[in-house]
Design a protein that fits this description.
The chain has one helix and 18 strands. With 300 residues, the protein is mostly beta strands.
């Protein structure tokens, strides 16, 4: 079987009219429908969030949509770090979230110290297999000099209900890698309304460097990774954190909730061996192990 390019740039047949694509994400619904999403952009900063759907295992992609696009000549907005989550029990339904950086008109390369800078979270959903997506709406509204990043939704679909949890890093000044907070919001009405952000823990990442060269290694150091046990609704979130060794290097922290996010366990170190640098890519297997054997993690 050959490879099929996703239509998220003009390099792909039938692709969207942008030169580059990044941050691809795929989620598969209960009927096998695959929902893919990506940011698409040009060197001049014109950008969009693009989505497509495959119902044949990725051999072909259709229902290509630009959920949001910002092609203004002021270069004021940039959509970033999108993700998509398919509803695990309702075929045809999926949810997209991302942050949109808002920069001053007069300085499109402004940094985080600029007073006009901010980055709220946007949300959109499809209920027709990606043929259409709802008008994007802000679900985390932040003041100047704050932003979210790494938004990801997990879903509790027990008892014929749909509760959405959106996890993210909430960043506020003074800016540094360790300036973030692991946070989430919750919707009990399928994304119509959301709670205010609730902080789970400080995100005390130190970043990762190559031990041989000292070069910075790009990892998920500022991105929390959530998961939910579909049988119990227990929530889990992991992230890189240096709190266990006095800030010298990152290990992997985990916090859990057994009451719908009302309370969270104190962060524990879950990488092995402990006392060694670790990053978050291996944590998907840790969370799957937690689903199979939830007694291995203390949830109170």
């Amino acid at each position: 079987m050959g490879t099929t390019p996703l239509p998220f740039s003009m390099c792909a047949p039938g692709g969207v009219p942008y030169e580059r694509a990044s941050d691809p994400w795929v989620s598969i619904g209960p009927d096998g429908t695959a929902y893919a999403i990506s940011i698409a952009f040009n060197p001049d900063n014109k950008n969009a969030v693009a989505a497509a759907v495959s119902r044949d295992g990725g051999q072909t992609w259709g229902n290509l949509n630009l959920i949001i696009r910002n092609d203004e000549p002021t270069l004021q907005f940039f959509n970033d770090k999108e993700s998509v989550t398919a509803n695990p029990v309702r075929a045809g339904v999926a949810y997209a979230v991302w942050d949109r950086l808002e920069l001053p008109n007069s300085n499109p390369r402004a940094n985080h110290h600029t007073a006009a800078y901010r980055g709220p979270t946007f949300f959109s959903k499809t209920v027709d297999f990606g043929k259409t997506w709802s008008t994007p709406s802000v679900i985390v509204n932040v003041p100047s000099r704050q932003q979210t990043i790494g938004n990801q939704i997990v879903i509790d679909s027990r008892n014929n209900q749909t509760t959405l949890y959106n996890f993210f890093n909430l960043i506020s000044p003074p800016f540094s890698k360790s300036a973030g907070k692991v946070a989430f919001i919750k919707s009990t009405d399928d994304g119509v309304t959301w709670t205010k952000p609730k902080i789970i823990a400080n995100l005390k990442t130190a970043g990762v460097t190559d031990p041989n060269t000292g070069e910075v290694v790009r990892t998920g150091d500022i991105i929390p990774e959530p998961a939910i046990d579909p049988a119990t609704g227990h929530l889990y979130v992991v992230w890189q954190d240096s709190r266990f060794n006095g800030g010298r290097f990152d290990e992997v922290a985990l916090s859990a909730s057994a009451d719908g996010g009302a309370t969270w366990s104190a962060p524990i170190r879950v990488n092995t061996p402990t006392g060694k640098p670790a990053s978050t890519p291996p944590c998907a297997s840790m969370l799957k192990a937690a689903w199979r054997s939830p007694t291995t993690i203390s949830v109170t």
